[in-house]
DNA sequence: AGGTAACCGAGACGGTACGTCACGTCTTCAC
DNA sequence: GTGAAGACGTGACGTACCGTCTCGGTTACCT
């Protein structure tokens, strides 16, 4: 979800011609606008102005705010993220949850803004779904490792386990708007690991 | 979250004078509009027209769409809802989850509309937070019963347990936009109950 | 078609409230814009800016450029114009034609602009038709006088005579874009008077 | 003003190469568009699409809509039209007026569309002036014949006579938007002939 | 026959204007 | 004098055409 790595150098002229340059400018503008003002002020006009591009150009290529977000989200999914390996299932899950908590409480709240956005644009919602689908698939590695280590029975439903571990984070921070609890990531990880070890995510289904 | 109980009869004249009548008309209009067209078309103009009240009146009393929603949500929290008693912790949790799944997949998706709304209006967000706070507090009864039955150790963190049980529902249906899985309510309930019985929600913290 | 009589005094606050004031401002702006830049630059945006009024206000009240023009034309028809009395039919017609020639060759060419406008907006076309209808009706006085003087037989078709007298002016100056010919008004008047005296506009039909 | 004469055969390759073929395609498209949708929808884009030619090509060769019209009008002037000979001045003029009335009331109103166009594009206006200049010059034959027949004195101003005869047609149908009057062509012809016979178009000037 | 200059297709872009919608404020007028 | 009705300012939306530009690929014509 991080994006704005300080672009390699040449901010004014990127390879690939005007079209590619325009796209990059708009991308950056979307992210910047989102970070500074949140989703509510993410208007096409503002993005266009910020990108130094004409309104109509944005409409032509991205159609609406949803299109802009989808583009950004898809680009965000193209990174090289992967789950850390701490040596134990609970540790891995806790590490994941720490990342989630960090993302959700970051300032400016870009992740929250994207979530909010997904409720207003079907296109953005689809993109977010794709993004999370990718992430959860990458995370299945965590479960595989645990199985290999013998911590979990084979046949464990990786996705269900991951959801059980991470869902409370989102629930508390996004739905319930609770103040961040530093113990929560660990607690949720422990709960899920414990249930998993007891076979809660096996077979049944 | 249910609302439209078949109003006692007299739709035209309620006790409390014009002010109260106006408020009720607007209330009804908000809910009706929300159900028919979703949040995106919940505009002050539409509500006012539907309620047969002048735009200005709505602005005066509710200020904006957020105010309208907050009012409706607070009213929705004034009902007599309570968790069912099935005789076992897992059963109680599963019953809760069934209700949640039903609410989230109902057509028209009024619950989803309210959640979406909460991302666009602080006032609605606060109201939703109040609403959920009330609900979770009522649900703590479920945990108390389990403790009394000896299913759970005393000192179990009721709120954490409830969140663990219900969060996966919201996560799958709202965040991940997954298709509803009829087995999920039961599975999530079982997982949480299992972890709770193992003491995952005790002491620690 | 004359308009910009130096408004009585108070340009800032007219009787009749904001609405009337707005209307007057827009009126003036339309005429000014038409005179300065012609019909092609008579855009809603420009008029609104010039009138110190917001775009949407203009759209609300006048719908489009045609509505603006119609309004102005109708206002222009409310003046106290009347044909001069020179003592003879030919003289009256020549005086009329002189006025026409003057209007069509005036600088800035506001009359031409209005004619041009009538080709682009049905509403303006209707207004122009109304305006000319009024004028021609007023001009029938000229024929009545000639009949009373015994210059013309009773039963002369006033409208046909007037058209025959004035049409060549418009044809030359508007359709054929000929350079103005100082003799034309008189010549056209003489031709029509001559034909009329010979009974060309009586009975027959 | 003629249009889709069944082109000689070879639709794929005309003499003169692609350039000439392109020009013909565009020509036809302009006329077709004008007839179907009138001037207001005569856009470069529509013409290009209709002609199966790229927008850019049209801009390169014709610059704008005015250029397209000028081209078409000039082509329309290259036909073999000539006034009919009915044997009398009044008859000739009436025949002319009948043609005018027919053209102005034809459906689709292509002539009116061209007139309207001339008010919006200087280039089209010049072309229309050329077109009418040609026509009126051809019509002077009518006057010559009348002189030869002894109906008119020599030295009659042919152009002025013709204008006097035809102008009322345009005035009624184009300016005043009156409903077509079947008697008008004859009446206008008679009036002009009468005045001419009385010497209204001689010498003076 | 081959090379070159003119022409064309393709598509993005900046730009102006359109007409609409909803918001929230402010003014007027009638009660 | 107050409050409902309605006009207004404001900002954004999404669209249509305009006219320009840059490519790259044909085509026509001329040597």
UniProtKB/TrEMBL annotation, chains A, B, C, D:
Pfam families: TetR_C_11, TetR_N. The lineage of its organism: Bacteria, Bacillati, Actinomycetota, Actinomycetes, Kitasatosporales. Residues 43-62 bind DNA. It comes from the Bacteria. Residues 1-23 are annotated as: Disordered. It comes from Streptomyces liangshanensis. This is TetR/AcrR family transcriptional regulator. PANTHER family: HTH-TYPE TRANSCRIPTIONAL REGULATOR RUTR, TETR-FAMILY TRANSCRIPTIONAL REGULATOR. GO terms for molecular function: DNA-binding transcription factor activity; transcription cis-regulatory region binding. InterPro entries: Homeodomain-like_sf (IPR009057), HTH-type_TetR-like_transc_reg (IPR050109), HTH_TetR (IPR001647), Tet_transcr_reg_TetR-rel_C_sf (IPR036271), TetR_C (IPR011075). Residues 20-80 form the HTH tetR-type domain. Keywords: DNA-binding, Transcription, Transcription regulation. The keyword Transcription applies.
């Amino acid at each position: 979800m991080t994006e704005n790595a300080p672009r390699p150098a040449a901010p004014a002229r990127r390879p690939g011609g005007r079209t590619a340059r325009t796209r990059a400018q708009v991308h950056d503008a979307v992210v910047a606008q989102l970070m500074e003002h949140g989703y509510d002020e993410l208007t096409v006009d503002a993005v266009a102005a910020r990108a130094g591009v004409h309104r109509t150009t944005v409409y032509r290529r991205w159609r609406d705010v949803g299109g802009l977000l989808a583009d950004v989200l898809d680009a965000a999914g193209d990174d090289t993220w992967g789950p850390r390996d701490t040596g134990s299932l609970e540790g891995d899950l806790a590490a994941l949850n720490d990342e989630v908590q960090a993302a959700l409480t970051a300032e400016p709240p870009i992740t929250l803004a994207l979530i909010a956005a997904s409720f207003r644009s079907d296109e953005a919602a689809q993109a977010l779904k794709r993004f999370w689908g990718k992430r959860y698939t990458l995370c299945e590695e965590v479960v595989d490792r645990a199985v290999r280590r013998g911590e979990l029975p084979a046949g464990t439903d990786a996705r269900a386990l991951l959801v059980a571990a991470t869902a409370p984070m989102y629930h508390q921070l996004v739905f319930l708007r609770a103040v961040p609890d530093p113990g929560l990531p660990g607690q949720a990880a422990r709960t899920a690991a414990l249930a998993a070890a007891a076979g809660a995510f096996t077979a049944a289904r």
